[in-house]
Amino acid sequence: MNKVPNNKAWFLVLPVFLLVAFSAIIPIMTVVNYSVQDIFDQNTSYFVGAEWYREMLRSPRLLDSLMRQFTYSFSVLVIEVPLGIAVALMMPAKGRMASLCLILVAIPLLIPWNVVGTIWQTFSRADIGLFGWLVNSVGIDYNYASNPGDAWFTVLLMDVWHWTSLIALLCYSGLRAIPEAFYQAARIDRASKWAVFRYIQLPRLKNVLVIGVLLRFMDSFMIYTEPFVLTGGGPGNSTTFLSQALTKMAIGQFDLGPAAAFSLIYYLIVLLVCYLFFTIINQQDNAK
Amino acid sequence: MINKRKTLGMTAYILFLLVPIYWLLNMSFKHNDEILGSLTLWPNNFTFDNYIVIFTDPSWYMGYVNSMIYVSMNMVITLVVALPAAYAFSRYRFVGDKHLFFWLLTNRMAPPAVFLLPFFQLYSSVGLFDTHIAVALAHCLFTVPLAVWILEGFMSGVPREVDETAYIDGYGFGRFFVRIFLPMIRSGIGTTAFFCFMFSWVELLLAKTLTSVEAKPISAIMTRTIGAAGIDWGLLSAAGILTIIPGILVVWFVRNHVAKGFALGRV
Known about the structure:
The complex is a heterodimer of chains A (about 290) and B (about 270).
Chain A: E1 4-5, H1 10-35, E2 37-39, E3 45-47, H2 51-58, H3 60-90, H4 96-106, H5 113-123, H6 130-137, H7 148-176, H8 180-188, H9 193-204, H10 206-221, H11 225-230, H12 242-252, H13 256-287
Antiparallel strand pairs in A: 2-3
Helix pairs in contact in A: 1-13, 2-13, 3-7, 3-10, 7-10, 10-13, 12-13
Chain B: H1 2-28, H2 32-37, H3 49-56, H4 58-91, E1 92-93, H5 97-108, H6 112-125, H7 132-156, H8 160-168, H9 173-184, H10 186-202, H11 205-209, H12 218-221, E2 226-227, E3 230-231, H13 233-253, H14 255-262
Antiparallel strand pairs in B: 2-3
């Protein structure tokens, strides 16, 4: 659509700008301010420059949780995206069953995150949970509270349970937007199921998948509540992801300076990955 | 044959989604000794005691009221500021529009943990700590960018000619916007409200940090069930089940717009 140049439109945008600036720019500036100071109490603080950044980039605590975080976000995407597409393809296209499926699939998205943690906490305990009990009775020794591998498995399973629906719903709406004529043409060409998927459905899903992957990456990268409730970051530090390491440092130990430097590094990583992703997608579009 | 396989797969997925929830529901109707004593697929001694505790104790049910209040405030604030902004983005070109749009989206990417401490200090210093409005404003940080994004997509679907015809007919901007434009994109508004609800209702970290007594959300109150004598699983489950119900109601109301809304306009 042709847009009319009109700078008075700023008046319409101003409320949003002020609101978001109030709750984004002021806090971010506070964080920047902390990150370059060594703070003893309210009135005593020293300017330390980039010291905290240097310390944080060398700290094994940050690097460990960063590695865990990348592994986690990567596994989440690898499992949830194909599964979500598959679920979207299986969902009925119209009728009562379609609405029913939509509602049921959307339910996990609307459960408060700590309740999601609670659900899985109770569901996978070996003594009182159905899942934990079943796995143990098959003969596999499973205990998410003491075995790091099991803890990882449970946190991943919980995330798949919680968020695959988002990808599924996004893809479902993308699939509904494909005109019937495309399928008719494919039938005339006697295209196989796979060819229909590969050359008609998948390209058309690209836009929603970009949103889906971005949202899933951002949200899994800031995950806090669910693993906190489920495992408390343990056993040991095996499921302590970035957000949790950060809150431990900022609120638990009140190390404001290092925590602020940590925050900014964290934020920059998210921005950088999203920016790279956007750029790569755009370049592919332009290359065509 | 293929349809049968699809139904089977879909059923399996939905079972996978529902069984953990069923387990919570099951536990919410049991006493604590039955939960800890033996594994039963349905309650042997069916009881409403856990729910009665929640509905008769103000310190419990006020948690739900508090959550509802800040979620509704957030929804109203978000829509009021996002509607004109989305209109501006979809209709006009102005200095810095693209940068502003991208900047808004970057706020969606900020990990809440980063903002925790500064938010706490900011809202304390302006005297908003432990009020509903503080939580509502804090949640605006991620609901507003999303709302602008979704609404812009819906508004771009309305042809410019509609605006121009209305202006020729003598409508002023305000009257045109409220009387003609908003009704045309009401499904977009519904979807946006749904997303605001969704992200504000499920968020805990900020809501918990910005409140202590007066505006404490239900999710924070739930941690009370963890006492010296261990966890009261029955009560915890009942509280959990009650937080799921509003979500189901909301998705029921918007079910016909969900597919459209999730397309989120353009990218």
